[in-house]
């Protein structure tokens, strides 16, 4: 589902019935405070941890690594365990 699916078709007006069907009252209140873009450009996914907006395993690793406070040894050990697992590399990139 994309944000555009929450509008009344052909308009930039929120479909109130659909919003209340899908979200809590608190969430609907927050959604309604979000102005609808008048643009009809298609939506796209952006990875805001890189200037290009593209996701890479390296950028995810850097992002997760930046969350480590004082390079805690427990977290370092968990990464070592993960990277030493006998699984295909493409599977490791999803963790």
> What is the tally of beta strands?
0
Mean pLDDT: 80
Percentage of residues in strands: under 5%
Anisotropy-based shape: elongated
- Discrete helix count: 5
Distance between the termini: 24 Å
Order of helices and strands: HHHHH
> C-alpha Rg, in Å?
20 Å
| Unreliable sequence segments | none
Structural class: mainly alpha
Give a quick account of the main beta sheet: strands, pairing sense, barrel closure.
none
Task: Report helical residue fraction.
Answer: 40-55%
Quick structural overview:
The chain is an all-alpha fold.
Structural overview:
The protein has 95 residues and is mainly alpha-helical. It has helices at 16-22, 25-32, 57-66, 73-83, 89-92. The protein is elongated and about 50 Å long. The mean pLDDT is 80.
Task: Sum up the structure in keywords.
mainly alpha; elongated; 95 residues; single chain
Topology record:
Blueprint: H1 16-22, H2 25-32, H3 57-66, H4 73-83, H5 89-92
